[in-house]
Amino acid sequence: MKTQVAIIGAGPSGLLLGQLLHKHGIDNIILEARTPEYVLGRIRAGVLEQGMVDLLHEAGAGERMAREGHVHEGFMLSFGGRAERIDLKGLTGGKTVTVYGQTEVTRDLMDARAASGAQTVYEALDVQLHDSDGPAPRVSYTKDGVRCEIACDYIAGCDGFHGVSRRSVDPGRITCYERVYPFGWLGVLSRTPPVDHELIYANHERGFALCSMRNEMLSRYYVQCPLDDKVEQWSDGRFWDELRARLPEEIGARMVTGPSIEKSIAPLRSFVAEPMRFGRLFLVGDAAHIVPPTGAKGLNLAASDVHTLYKVLCERYRTGDVDVLDRYSELSLRRIWKAERFSWWMTSLLHKLDDDVFAHRIRLAELDYLAGSQAGRTTIAENYVGLPYEWRD
Ligand code: APR
Ligand code: PHB
Fold it and tell me: In degrees rounded to 5, what are phi and psi of residue 156?
């Protein structure tokens, strides 16, 4: 087989890149280790920056999001028994975010791809990259017991944090920066109306809490928990009690509870691999970087990488100029590090890091300062709605 771009991974990064390239006449094949059902079974965040919303429309996969997604013009920060609204729209000259689950984004991209007729190979096992430094890279894999090979011009490693693409790079050529946080998030999905029409991020001396949602009858809640906790230790009753205790009284009192339909504990990590291009291999999304979920930036960063890569590849094929490919890593990393900083900062500001009561009071003072300052609120808002993409036409 032969294609222009071999894409490894059919998560949001791989599917979005595949659609955008296809729309611009650049042939591509996606290789995914799992089944479509498995990919759709992963529950992830769902706060989309305007840049990602625009990109989904450009990819021809934005129609249902426009209908069923919810535009949020602000969110709540709660601390010290009070709740302060961050007016995203007012503070950013009209920018908003869209709440639409990653599962739905992935489903829409899968449907768009199926409709376009472009090829996706699910259950492609033992994917291996060959000669990605030379002029003629190849990707091999096993499907239904048969070893297959694709010759291509470029390889896009969209295979997530645990994928094969980053691991296939000589460790001497890649630098990894990492911070692992000493706590996790216990997440619960429940068929209950969300406690508020906007998200609530809560700092509390018992630990962080987040109230989010998927739609009018589906809520997503999180509480900070010790990393070694097991979900079995968290009955639904214990979870609701803990969540309520971390919210301002009035909000906790109106929260509707019900049986959980999903419950899981996730660790938090900051991670960046540099550079993101190795010859004809490009790392994209979670394959190159991870953020803690506090700023809702994971999926949005994947989208901005895809934007940059699809623009440089379009330029490369349109003009024949290969030097433009050099810009991918630098442009992507500039935006990634700013989102890494914001996610790390939000995490540090809102979580209980230790039993240090002095540190807790300092965080409360910082929140009080931010809430009382136009500059403070603006800095939160402009980062939350998403900084501008670095590539400009
Ligand atoms: N071969 C083929 N496919 C692979 C391999 C492999 N060796 N390893 C992993 N994959 C697939 C995974 O099964 C998964 O479907 O690559 C895909 C990677 O998808 P994600 O982990 O979702 O990563 P990405 O597409 O970059 O999405 C960005 O944003 O909100 C965040 O972390 C969240 O998934 C989200 C991410
Ligand atoms: C979610 O809805 O799962 C969610 C929302 C915002 C975040 C993290 C997760 O910051």
Answer: -105, 115
* Average pLDDT rounded to a whole number, residues 225-241: 98
Nearest-atom index, ligand 2, CA of 43: 3
- Give the Cα separation of 90 and 381 in Å (integer): 9
Ligand in closest contact with the CA of 43: 2
From the list 153, 181, 182, the residue with the least C-alpha distance to 320 is: 153
Distance (Å, whole) CA 128 – CA 108: 28
Annotated domain spans of the chain: 5-72+98-177+269-351
**Nearest residue to 212 via CA among 329, 89, 76:** 76
Domain 5-72+98-177+269-351: CATH architecture, name and number where available = 3-Layer(bba) Sandwich (3.50)
Work out which ligand 2 atom sits closest to the CA atom of 44.
3
Place of tokens 């700013």: 338
- pLDDT, tens digit, for every residue of 145-171? 999 999 999 999 999 999 999 999 999
**287 close to 159: Cβ distance less than 8 angstroms:** yes
List pLDDT tens digits, range 272-305: 999 999 999 999 999 999 999 999 999 999 999 9
Interval 73-83: pLDDT, tens: 999 999 999 99
Q: Find the ligand nearest to 301 CA.
A: 1
